[in-house]
Amino acid sequence: MGPTASGKTTFIDYAAGRSDVDRGSTSCTTEVLPVRYPHSDGVRNIVLVDTPGCNNGFMTDFQLLGIIAEWLNSIYRKNIKLNGILYFHRISDYRMRDASSRSYKMLRDLCGNDNCKNVIFVTTMWDKVSEEVGSEREQELRAVSWGTMVNLGSTTHRFEGTAESAWKIIDSLSISRPTQCHPLQIQREMVHKHLPLHRTTAGKTILDRYNFTSGSEGLLDRLKRGMKKTGSRATHVTRITVTLTDDPTAPQYVGAGTVICPGSGFCSVEGYGSSLAQVISTLRTAVGTAELVHIHYLKDVIAQCLNLALSIGTMTETHHAHFQILETATLLVNVIIEHAKETKISADIKTAVHEFAEEVSHVQEIVRDLPQRAPEARRVLQSTDVRVISSCADSIRLVCNVLRSTSPIKYDLGSVGDGLGALKRGLEIEKCSCGIPLEQDRALSS
Fold first, then answer.
1. Which of 48, 56, 121, 132 is buried deepest, with most CB atoms within 10 A?
2. 68-105 pLDDT, tens per residue?
3. What is the CA radius of gyration of the chain?
4. DSSP state for residue 404 in the 8-state scheme
């Protein structure tokens, strides 16, 4: 195992004597490939198993885990167990890259603590660095990056790019009888406990990277601060801040949808464009997540939200309430996904979600018809707009109420509620000046 282009296939090529195989930098392994080769002792056969790497451009990490888990479980049901796992890492990397970090976490959760002693961390590409630099990085990897597994019995070896080096590493594995080998953690979870992939330890770790509910605290806090000022007659702009990102390594991005407190006549000069881009990215991730954890009933509402977002994105001028209902719907979608990871969704929740999807489609119809209006008229909410958006907000409240009543839910629905409160205030602004410079806005109002 290991990230893409870390030397897994090259190692097998040397060990199996396949010197004619091209050793380019482009990874082409897209499936689990066992290679059987006679051991040099003339008695045993060794089976080396090549696997795809993280960030290979062909599949997501969850799909990669599924492919590896399927193969592991199939051999385990035949009473075939692994003697060890070789994890590959380029010593030429000056730091632990994202793909390497994700791949290591997958290895750790796939194996479990009991099997760490059967894992060897193999460093490659020593010809790309000096001995001094390589040794320093090797020491840091042992102590920090791989420290948890090393403390539990994992070892490290250098692959020097020769057949002798490859077989030295293979021979360092403890070859045990099948009855003495232990199943991996993911094999116990899926074969013995019959857990679906997304509820295994490794599956949860991957899916948790798509979780952005932790950012709802910022939304709640900022809305509270803005609500404290609503008694003043001055203009108050309260920003909704929601962490919306599918990149677990990226810095926390704070999207800014803008809410106008009662009594205010102005919207944000910045508008909601940057937040909309993040919402679109998040919804695209949600489509894949819903597919992976088999939440098929949620796919319709995600698709409707995504279509709505893309439609809003084509508008140069539109009332910010259209974005507010979209942003609140996106928060709710995330809560439902997180809830579905933990427990079975009831029929009542599915019914409420279906109605929610219908209401989002009605909002989408309004936005789709906006180009038929004059540019100035797009910023003005018509009575039909208010009625349809309010009906969609009611469907969101219904889903929240059903979630609360049917089963315990540990994810905060308060952020969705505050989004609805912000939307209500936004609907009170008949004419939106979102994204218009202050001077231009004054001219429009004069």
1. 121
2. 999 999 999 998 889 899 999 999 987 777 778 888 99
3. 27
4. H
